[in-house]
Design goal:
The protein is α+β, with helices and mostly antiparallel strands. Helices cover 29% and strands 34% of the residues. The structure holds coenzyme A.
Length: 155
């Protein structure tokens, strides 16, 4: 199934706010309603729906902080019924690729509630490393983007 990231529009935002994780996972991620409101308020976050084919299966939100040369993956969720199919991994892979294509982006940061073994395992397998820092109860992970001069030209 082809995984794509699509903008949230008038046509799909209702579907997006209906997506939900399992009850036991609710402490791991904000609701999509909250995240969309946050993106509207901060003006920099880029919320995207994760689609498998034409089915919306999840949500991811990123932003780039130019002063820090750093990309942030601030939110990731795959709806309960669609978990375990590789969609979360593929969505992460795609946003990491996009950050890597931005020559100004030197590192990528994300964070995880320490009890969230699944997300922590996923992030580490993608190359994120724990920094030992905590922020609002979440452990911060970071990935450094090492570029050869060739890559920095985007060629
Ligand atoms: C974390 C989450 C986004 C993963 O999405 P997903 O589509 O279910 O995950 P994938 O099928 O792509 O699996 C990706 C990896 O996650 C890890 N993983 C997934 N479920 C796991 C579990 N129950 N235990 C341990 N690791 C697990 C594995 O490393 C897996 O890779 P593998 O299949 O190659 O071994 C999803 O489970 C989710 O939305 N959870 C609730 C919200 C949440 O925790 N969000 C992250 C906040 S930091």
């Amino acid at each position: 199934m082809t995984v794509t990231l699509r903008e949230i529009t008038m046509d799909n935002f209702r579907e997006c706010i209906k997506l939900s994780v399992a009850e036991a996972q609710k402490g791991f991620v904000a609701s999509n309603m909250y995240s969309l409101a946050e993106a509207q308020a901060d003006g920099v976050s880029e919320p995207r729906a994760i689609y498998a084919g034409d089915q919306m299966v999840g949500f991811i939100m990123v932003d780039f902080e130019p002063k820090e040369d750093r990309g942030y993956i601030s939110r990731l969720m795959v709806a309960e019924d669609h978990q375990g199919n590789g969609y979360g991994r593929e969505a992460m892979r795609q946003v990491i690729e996009r950050f890597k294509r931005n020559p100004a982006c030197k590192e990528i940061q994300t964070a995880v509630v320490p009890e969230n073994v699944a997300a922590d395992t996923l992030y580490r397998s993608l190359g994120f490393e724990p920094t030992g820092e905590m922020d609002e109860g979440e452990a911060i992970l970071r990935m450094t983007i090492n570029r050869t001069p060739h890559q920095s030209l985007g060629l």
